[in-house]
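User: My instructor asked us to take a sequence, write out its structure as tokens, and then describe one feature of it. I'm not sure where to start. Here is the sequence I was given:
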Amino acid sequence: MKHPEPVLKMYTYHSWANGVIIDRLNELPQHIYHKEIQSGFSSVSKVLSHIYLTDYVWFDIISGKSMDEAMASSHQLREEVEKKNIEEMKKIFLDLYERNTAFLSKEDMEKVIVVDNPYAGLLETTISESVLHVVTHGSYHRGNIATMLRQMGHTSVMQDFGLYLYSK
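Assistant: Let's start with the prediction itself. The structure tokens for your sequence are:
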């Protein structure tokens, strides 16, 4: 089986970046995490939950579930995930990363999957493209969190790919 190193490295970066932003959130006053604000999302906790649930959905899809099945599973988890504190979020992100990494280490990353998206229709794609989608989606929303923190008078933290490379 082929394992394109760049895709696996990008997924590891995604996990690292999620950890960096979670660690920053852990340094701030605890009320910041669930504080309601006027933004694209109503709170930082909703954004972080969205990142987690989207990762969960896409890895269910990569594992062979239909998008409808994967989305139904995530909807059942949504309320529970959104109520978690930052330490609990750190744990479930780590668990998800370990599960997904174990799965990816055995898969042909160029395996073609068909995604039947109820909003966009059929998409023929590969596991590697789906993983890159997860990574870019997370990057986009970690940027939302950085903006929200600034709106509340707090700094964020650097979490870009270049810094990840330097950290290794």
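For the description part of your assignment, you could build on this observation: The longest helix spans residues 127-151. Try explaining in your own words what that tells you about the chain.
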